[in-house]
């Protein structure tokens, strides 16, 4: 079986590694140059952890993990609202939880597959023709090749989905927010692993990476979904957060490499069926849980593992049906969690912000953390 994977991010590279584990060699195409990744942090949770264990990558991820420790939340004047400790979350997950920069995560996965299968950078798919017996893919360099299966793992704005399933807006479900993330140098230590600030309709913060830099994450209420050029992005960030004090002030005045940064609408993707003939979708291209659920990367890894396992033992029709049947309940649940969390993560009123500052420390305390995790975290998937 010859499989084309469109997208060399976490979903696509994990899928490639899982296919190689079954003796199937894929071809990966990625539109970015080699080494280009977003400057934000991601979490590895239980289902992604399971996949990492099977791929023999857990210790490699651990070696690159960001430190876990206290998190402080402040109001926009710099006054403390509440605190909790990420180590309590890790303990509740029995140690199977870590945070890692996306660039490090991507590098580890690239090392796991590079040299074992082709990865073609600066390459996109411009046309797909499924005749029932295979798929003819045309690439941005004008070449064309035939594959038994094409899997779109090319993210939230998937080109494969647009080519084979329909326009982007048809499947877009905006949650009413925008978000931006990039990496900044720290002039002085944060004093915690995470320092966040919040106000009505706004949330922003910095995660200490451990190397003298921090990963930022800003989110604000904004119903618009159009893309903005770098100059307009900077202007929006200044308008929304420019009056906030340190450490946000320094983050906003730092240089931002928009080729490595993130700025987009916070939205889920809802596709009625994740496959069409010999073309399938995986990860954000199929569902996009958003960072609000905190399970996007791990769920994509689990989907990659299950899809590869099904393809290794069944014909493509049965494999794609089984993959969706096994993954759809989890995705539906976590999309619901993401929608619910949004209203708490971005407070809608001063009262709501104060209420959150009272409730969250209790819900994240040792006596209640397991209960909280059971309500918000993804359930354990049976991978094998």
Automatic annotation (TrEMBL):
PROSITE patterns: PROKAR_LIPOPROTEIN. Transmembrane segments: none annotated. Residues 3-334 form the FAD-binding domain. It comes from the Bacteria. PANTHER family: OXIDOREDUCTASE-RELATED (PTHR46865). This is Oxidoreductase. It comes from Shinella yambaruensis.
């Amino acid at each position: 079986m010859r499989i084309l994977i469109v997208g060399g991010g976490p979903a696509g590279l994990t899928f490639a590694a899982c296919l190689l584990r079954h003796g199937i060699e894929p071809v990966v195409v990625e539109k970015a140059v080699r080494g280009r990744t977003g400057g934000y942090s991601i979490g590895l949770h239980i289902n992604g952890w399971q996949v990492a264990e099977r791929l023999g990558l857990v210790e490699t991820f651990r070696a690159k993990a960001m430190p876990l420790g206290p998190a402080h939340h402040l109001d926009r004047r710099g006054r403390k609202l509440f605190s909790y400790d990420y180590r309590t979350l890790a303990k509740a997950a029995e140690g199977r939880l870590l945070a890692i920069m996306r660039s490090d995560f991507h590098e580890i996965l690239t090392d796991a597959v590079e040299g074992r299968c082709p990865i073609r950078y600066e390459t996109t798919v411009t046309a797909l023709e499924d005749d029932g017996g295979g798929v003819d893919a045309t690439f941005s360099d004008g070449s064309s090749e035939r594959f038994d299966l094409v899997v779109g793992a090319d993210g939230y704005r998937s080109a494969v989905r647009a080519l084979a399933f329909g326009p982007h807006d048809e499947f877009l479900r905006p949650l009413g927010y925008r978000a931006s993330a990039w990496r900044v140098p720290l002039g002085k230590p944060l004093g915690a692993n995470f320092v966040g600030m919040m106000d009505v309709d706004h949330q922003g913060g910095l995660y200490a990476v451990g190397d003298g830099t921090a990963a930022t994450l800003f989110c604000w209420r904004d119903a618009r979904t159009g893309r903005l050029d770098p100059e307009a992005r900077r202007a929006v960030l200044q308008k929304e957060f420019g009056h906030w004090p340190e450490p946000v002030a320094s983050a906003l005045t730092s240089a931002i490499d928009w080729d490595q940064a993130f700025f987009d609408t916070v939205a889920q993707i809802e596709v009625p069926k994740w496959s069409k003939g010999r073309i399938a979708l995986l990860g954000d291209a199929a569902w996009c849980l958003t960072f609000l659920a905190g399970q996007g990367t791990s769920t994509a890894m689990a989907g990659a593992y299950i899809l590869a396992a099904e393809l290794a033992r069944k014909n493509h029709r049965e494999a794609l049906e089984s993959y969706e049947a096994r993954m759809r309940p989890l995705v539906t649940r976590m999309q619901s969690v993401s929608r619910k969390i949004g209203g708490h993560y971005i407070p809608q009123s001063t009262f709501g912000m104060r209420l959150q500052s009272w409730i969250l420390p209790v819900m994240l305390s040792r006596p209640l953390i397991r209960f909280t995790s059971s309500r918000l975290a993804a359930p354990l998937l049976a991978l094998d």
